[in-house]
Design goal:
This protein is an alpha/beta fold. 45% of the residues lie in helices and 11% in strands. Strand 2, helix 3 (57-66) and strand 3 (70-74) form a beta-alpha-beta unit.
Amino acid sequence: MENEKASRRIVYGRLPTILVLLPTRELAKQVFTDFKYYGEAVGLTSCCLYDGGGATISPQIVQLKRGVDIVVGAVGRVKDHIERGNLDLSSMKFRILDEADEMLRQGFVEDVEYILGKVNDAAKVQTVLFSATLPSWVNHIASKFLKPNKKISDLVGVQVMKASESVRHIIMPCSWSARSQVIPDIIRHHSSECS
């Protein structure tokens, strides 16, 4: 395992094998933080592609040219990098769409289909799609880009924007400084009810 980590760091210009698409830069940055932390622990490098918020494209181009294992990005910037020739998806093994219904709501239908269409030999790529709701476009994307034997896990039922009936919501006002004491108390109290 250690030799594998070392060889990954030496290789220059390798193509990414994992793509994570998100609708917004804020969500992309949040997800990237986790991929960076856990990926580095096993020798995987990652980069975050987004525009706006003071992000310039030059550092992103440098990262892609050096080579990364995981690309986490907002739809618009990922498409931009593909069109500029900075991002090659021909070595993809995994692609993840998070908040697919939000991508639809924000008008990224054509962009998402364009990006997913750039993956070579899609039959060998594992695709995972997450969506809070299942509007017809999400079903269309699932039919078009997921394998025929796909598995669907509907955690809340078919109704749009319905909260899970097995989750109990509690609101407890407290000051910011008291949260670190209140939350463990709530967990202890309610976990004792379940046992």
